[in-house]
Amino acid sequence: MKMKAEKGTVFIFVLPTLIFLLLIFVYPLFFGVYLSLHSTREGLRLLSFVGLRNYATVLTSELFWWGVRNTVIYTVGTVGLTVGLGLAIAVLLNRIKSAVWLYRALLILPLGVSPVVTGMTWQMMFDPLSGIINHLLSLVGLPTSLWHTGFRTAMASVIIIESWQWIPFPLFVIYAGLQMMPQEPFEAATIDGATAFQQIRYITLPLIAPILGLATTLRFIGAFRSFDILYVVTKGGPGRATDTLILQAFMESFSYYRFEYGLVVGKTMLVVTLIVSIILVNKLTRQVGS
Predict the structure, then answer these.
(1) N or C: which end of the chain has fewer CB within 10 A?
(2) Which residues fall within 8 angstroms of residue 280, CB to CB, at 6 or more apart?
(3) Residue 195 — very low, low, confident or very high, per pLDDT cuts 50/70/90?
(4) pLDDT value at position 42?
């Protein structure tokens, strides 16, 4: 009886939090699904049920699949750069013995900058005519670029900006994993004459594989729904060169006022995020358990 009373007391204290979470997460989710099955052409107060017609319209649109292509390129590019460079810098940082606090403070600075400020700053630096990047390239005799204003270079530009902003996240996740690794395998490998590269390849990477998986999963979720930098720097242009799904959802909802189409794109992104995250988490769980 006492245990039941304690469970009842715990439930009473937890109930307000559960209700709050239901209101801010569950209700908008299901209301969004409800709206996606209706037409909002006559306003939100005069909804007309259309079933899956909105989904059919969006998923058969050439514009939607162009957005899928751009989203894949953007996500793969930013995740690859942030995790790859984060791993490399973390390994180097782990070998530094003096003034480590200074390097940590400098490396984490990009995370302290607002994505909007980051986008605007890099936009000025990338300006083809007055930007400092092209100026420095011209000083050393290298070819300049149109950067974010060119159809072929815009995607690479926003990937560079997003990666600069978020490299510290996987960097410090991986660095924390490196700090917790046992030193005995490295001491034995050094005695056996293993090079630094061999130690990284055969000891470091296998030991931190679960940490790499975690960093990759979290970065995928962040990059897949990245909005701020893309909107500030290119708004999907030029010529839809950087038009990703999240931008399409925003534009459909708040520029064209076709909320149902924006919701269809958003729910599609939610499903893809859940599927990929489940796959990555399951793989991570197997790595941890092995």
Answers:
(1) N
(2) 213, 216, 217, 220
(3) confident
(4) 79
Fold of 61-289: MetI-like fold (1.10.3720)
Hey, what are 46's tokens?
Answer: 């005069």
Helix or strand holding residue 171 (H, E): helix 168-179
Q: Which two tokens mark 74?
A: 């953007």
Q: Taking the domains of the chain in order of start, what are their residue ranges?
A: 61-289
* CA separation for the pair 258, 274 (Å, rounded): 25
Residue 272 CB partners (closer than 8 Å, separation 6+): 224
Task: Compute the distance between CA of residue 30 and CA of residue 202 in angstroms, rounded to an integer.
Answer: 48
CA angle 80–112–178, rounded 5-degree value: 50
Percentage helix, strand, coil, to 5, in the chain?
A: 75, 0, 25
**pLDDT tens figures, 60-114:** 999 999 999 999 999 999 999 999 999 999 999 998 888 899 999 999 999 999 9
**Residue 235 CA to its chain's centroid (Å):** 18
Torsion angles phi and psi, residue 52, rounded to 5: -95, 15
